[in-house]
Amino acid sequence: MTDLATLGQRIRHFRTRAGLTLEQLGGDVGIAASQLSLMENGKREPRLGLLARIAGRLEIPVADLLASTPPSKRAALEIELDRAQRGSLYASLGLPAIRPSRAMSDEVLEAVVGLHRELERRSREAIATPEEARRANTELRRLMRPKNNYLPEIEEVAEDLVRQVGHTRGALTHRSVSEMARRLGFELVHVNDLPHSARSVTDLQHGRIYLPPASIPGGHGLRSMALQAMAHRVLEHSAPGDYAEFLRQRLEINYFAAACLMPRTQSVEFLSAAKAERNIAVEDFRDAFGVTHEAAALRFTNLATEHLGIRVHFLRVGDDGAVYKVYENDGLRLPVDVTGSTEGELVCRHWSARVAFSRTNRTTEFYQYTDTPEGTFFESTQTGTSASDEFSITVGVPFADAKWFRGRETTNREKSTCPDLACCKNPDDELSARWSGRAWSSAKVHAHIFSPLPRGTFPGVDDRELYEFLEAHARS
Question: pTM of the predicted model, to two decimals?
Fold first, then answer.
């Protein structure tokens, strides 16, 4: 059955077309006019038998009443106005609801509805505070933990698409990615003038996905960008209504891209074989599928618990010790602020994620056991360099699961008592006595901490620049 507002409008439309009043139609079908009025206003659901009597009296099929589209442009506007006024946004203003009477012209009604649309649009684009964004991100991490960072529905969709293009093993080729796009009705187009704020742009009208030039280094990045753009379509995303929904969609498209680049069946076979040989290594997983170390490490967290029976944690940490990305379901105690958020917090100096920066040779993974109040963890860490800083990627497991991993023979061992401040945050007494009151430092402040969170229909993307880009390429 269609929604009650549309159903009510369709009953009213056909009643007035037949020249009947509420009293006349109500009397003919055996209900009071007041009850029929409630139905026409979408406040009461009629039984199917009553609908059949109404349709019979109006000499139309029942299907005409149950159609999902409003019967006229004005009816559509009245339905939209009613929904807007019943929403929490309008209710928060404390203003009375307007009931569109017959005396209200279509122009006035359209203007009022237009104001509601603009109010909602501006609300969607409102700048989220950093605290709101951190809470949204923390809530998303909490939702993924009991799922073991595993989304089977997306796994199925990704594996089916990969299977359709005949990919069976190894790195997913650019040609296969292009074929996947074609099957979804898209053409991949590489351009030099993408909006500076966009990684990719999808033209839904003309079936094009615009990407950076194909000559840029790093094939994994281009494949991943294309797959992420396709994911919005495959997963039936609509424009995000708030920052939390934006973050959820971003997680899902990243998951989809990883599940295509490292398909579940092939990945589980590879990792299971490595486990049987007690030789699991993220660097081998990375090389087998031609992806980045970070992508392989994150993908490992998707599959480790569900398919290998291994609980795990993942960290991306900057060279200053700040957490950029994190996941755990193995009991590692993460540094958190009062809201429960981890991103931006500093990890212990004794954890592998920070110790690895002190190595001279960083070409291979660094292995370490870390004793913590929650138990001992085995960790492997790979360091890397981005355009702006250095970072480390860490995958860790409880001590009992170290037996499955390469590097378990390491003699590197550290002890961490964090969050105890005496562990690694407070200077020792001798240094404090020597330098307290005798030193002054000018702090390095990252400019981004003063910046508001990105705004726009798609946070961070300039709508004007985006639409001008699409218009220019639609004519080409």
Answer: 0.71
